[in-house]
C-alpha cells in the first residue's frame, strides 16, 4: 500500500480510505470488525465514519462498532487514522445539529465516547453551516485541539468559496485550518474540478472523494446484470441514471474489458491519477469487496486510456475543455 500526506499536513494516510457507512445497516458488527482487521493487513490505515452513520438518530451505530473494534486492542487504534464527522442531527432538540460551539463540544465528546478513544485524528464538518460564523466555529475547534481531543480538521460537501472562507478565517486566527475536503467525485460527477479542486490545491487541502463509483454505476453494473448478479444500481435514482447513461456506461465497461481490468478498479484508479486527490473512499460490505478494491491502488492508467475516459466522461467546462479558472474566460 502506498501512503501520502493528507494535504499540506504531515499526516501519512493510505491511498485508499476505508468507508464505514455500511457498518451496521448492511454489515454486521462481527463482519465489520473482520473487514477492519483485513484492511490493516492490506496496509490501509485511513478509516472514515460519521456520528450519524447507522441512521438511527442519536445512537451513533457505526462509531460504536468502530469503538468496540478499537477496544479489542492489539494496536488497532494506534495504527488507524480515524476520521469522523459532525453536522447532522443527533436528536430532536435544538443545538443537537450543525456547527454551533455548543454542538461542536457535545458532538466531539460523544464521538470520543463511542469510538472509545481520547482523540480524533481528523474531525470533519459534514456540511457547511450557513448560520454559524467562522469565528465561532474556529474558536470551538481550537479549544478541542488545545485539549488534545482533535488533531486535524476537514470539511465535506463544501463549495470552493466555502473552502476559501474557512481557510481565510483560520488564517486570521493563526490556526492551521482545514487539511482536507471530502467531496462527491467520480468519472460521472466531475463538477468539483471547476472550483473545489482548484481551491483545495490553493489552500493545501487533500481531497477525499466519496461515491467514487457513482453508486455502483461505474462498478460493472451492466456486466453484473447480464450475469444475474444483484446490484444497488438496479433501483431508485441509480436506475434512472443507468438508463440515461446506459450507452456511455456500456462503452466504459467495454474499454475496461479491453485493458483487462475491472471497471470498479479503473474508476478508483482514475481518481488516484487526478492532481490533489488523496484517497477515494471505498465502502465494502464484505471482505471480498475489500480485497478486490486493492488492485486500484497499484493500477497505472496510460495517457491513451486516460484520454479515452475523458472522451466518455468529459470534464465540465463552460468554455470548451479548458480547466478552471480558464474555463470561465479567455
From TrEMBL:
CDD domains reported in the protein's UniProt record: AKR_AKR12A1_B1_C1 (cd19087)
Gene3D superfamilies (alphabetical): NADP-dependent oxidoreductase domain (3.20.20.100)
Residues of the NADP-dependent oxidoreductase domain: 15-312
Pfam families (alphabetical): Aldo_ket_red
InterPro entries with a match to the protein in the record: AKR_Detox_Biosynth (IPR050523), NAD(P)_OxRdtase_dom_sf (IPR036812), NADP_OxRdtase_dom (IPR023210)
PANTHER family xrefs: NADH-SPECIFIC METHYLGLYOXAL REDUCTASE-RELATED, REDUCTASE
UniProt protein name: Aldo/keto reductase
Species, as recorded: Lentzea sokolovensis
Taxonomic classification: Bacteria, Bacillati, Actinomycetota, Actinomycetes, Pseudonocardiales
